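[job 0412] stage=fold_complex status=start
inputs:
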Amino acid sequence: MSETNVTIRDVARRAGVSVATVSRVVSGKGHVREATRARVNAAVQELGYRPSRMARSFRAQRSNFVGLLISDIENPFHTSLARAIEDQLYARGYSLLLCNTDEVLERERTYLQFLADERAAGVICAPASEKETSFHPVLAAGIPVVCVDRVALCTPVDSVRVNNVAAMRALTRHLLNRGHRRIGFVGLDTVITSGRERFEAYAQTLRSVGIEPDMNIIRLGKGVEAFGFQATLALFETPTPPTALITANNMLTLGALKALQKLGARIPEDVALAAFDVTPWLSLLTPRFVVAAQPIRQIAEIAVQMLMERLGGNTQPPREVLLDATLITDEALRAFGAEAETVPLNATLKIQRG
Amino acid sequence: MSETNVTIRDVARRAGVSVATVSRVVSGKGHVREATRARVNAAVQELGYRPSRMARSFRAQRSNFVGLLISDIENPFHTSLARAIEDQLYARGYSLLLCNTDEVLERERTYLQFLADERAAGVICAPASEKETSFHPVLAAGIPVVCVDRVALCTPVDSVRVNNVAAMRALTRHLLNRGHRRIGFVGLDTVITSGRERFEAYAQTLRSVGIEPDMNIIRLGKGVEAFGFQATLALFETPTPPTALITANNMLTLGALKALQKLGARIPEDVALAAFDVTPWLSLLTPRFVVAAQPIRQIAEIAVQMLMERLGGNTQPPREVLLDATLITDEALRAFGAEAETVPLNATLKIQRG
DNA sequence: CAATTCGTTGATAACGATTACACTTCTTGG
DNA sequence: CCAAGAAGTGTAATCGTTATCAACGAATTG
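[job 0412] stage=fold_complex status=done
writing structure:
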């Protein structure tokens, strides 16, 4: 029965054929006479033979793992992304190696080098820095890379992300339309693509209606709950606090909400809020605010699709895919499931890039 | 510089030594003259040589991956667990292969077989069924297994989990102490360890005060939001609905909260709630209720520790470790961060098992 | 009918590292 | 000063699989 250490040689001996023939039968390549095939299959059954994937990978100089580099799986956006990617990979016979970088370049570099040494099949990465992240080690090893959520400027590769500019413009306009002139911003560091794009869209939208962004009510930092909390508290300690607030990702939103709760500020009566990202618990909250929802499963699908095309030998120049976010108003959010009455933004862009 | 495909042979040629010597220098084993070592290191630098981890794994017949089998990474408990385990493994030079089973035995089996074929270094698993999950394929391949959160009865291995019985007894007693006699229960299927233990503790605690559990206000099923939602709605459609409710994990709690919101039931005024698991957003909610918090990082630490001991050659009989949950009252939860004023339960148990 | 192609199979060489073994050369204690 | 052990190094086997090549008989074709 299925004991350990049964190799192709054992099967060959049992079936009275050469290892080459067993390989042909098992891998289904090449011609083998029906009678021989049956003998080999019988031997495989009897011995409980299973080919060593490690030996196969070694022989092929390519493993079946795809490395996923994200800052932190505990960020719900990354959680959903990881889940969706894992599903996609599983369906294609690959498996997922989870790498949390915590936005630490050193750890990111270590993991990239590791994946190169390990001859990963591919890498899906949300780079910790647009400028400092280099995929050189993996690319030099011939491993394809796809960026998600962010891009790396030094080594251009395929990338998929949400149209941050359109989404943030919509969030900002939403607050402007409600009459707010003093809108605070708690965002991500601009070395991160999503941080830069979201902040710039916010600033540009304000300027487009004649408002100069005020650095007193803008805080950029790590996309974690603690920063969102502290930054929000700080914003409201200024002489002229904002009447509205924008948070640039779900962890920042979480921190901001806790800060506002601590300050006793009601949303939207005292402070209006517009936030990036959706979480399953949003509809349970008393505060009401607009959110921009990212098409996470679609990002995952396209990322994996692109990776597979590269593995299939595609050598076209890298593509950059932008997907639309969906604006969910506070009324829609109230509806159970938070998936009703969504408002699409503008059309999907696909930009060719040198 | 660091080109691809630089093998140990290239380094050997460059340094004018044999591959064995290069191996000795690079892996740091065996004696090499200082001058030779320097020459080899120079060649390594010049060529940008990095040993192929794949070849190493193949040679050693053991990879550096640890498979983590959980039902769904989107369950926040699993998310935190995965994160904590990844940290532990990273510190020890291993990496994490993420496997979502969705509680589907077929998918679990597929992954276990895959990990066996891949010669994983180890497996950490929350089995989808106490009775039907078999680690035979991995164990036969000599791969150590540690169970977390749940146990597998057919193939006993090391396991770590929270003391479900003590925690659920405390939750139930809490509601009883507040005068509730009719306490509903939305829990997990009893083929899952945590489902069975939590339900039994609930039932036993009720009986201990002379209350016979009423199946009309008990629902057991998949630990997902949708089930929590539907089950809760169903409970309150009965002729004599409960005055209090217990939910057995965080996804069920999420669903239950949405259901109660839909029903317009205030917590705790209309319905009291006691729940298993903590989530970061709990303190933002208007509803107030008690929760049992699991020591997730500790579970991860012990699980990885046990795995490492097995990898180190430990052949003692499997150990079963139970850790204490922490009861967090609604008042404590109000405090920011939800980590103040915790109430420890009873002492840690360690049970030897045949 | 000769020439070619195809189907079938086995022997063998990789893939890139580690390591047991053998063979020098040093040390060093007696 | 010699024997014995240690240090330093190379050769070759090995891990399990797949791919290349050659060999041979059967079938096809001009």
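[job 0412] summary: Chain B is about 40% helix and 20% strand.
[job 0412] exit 0
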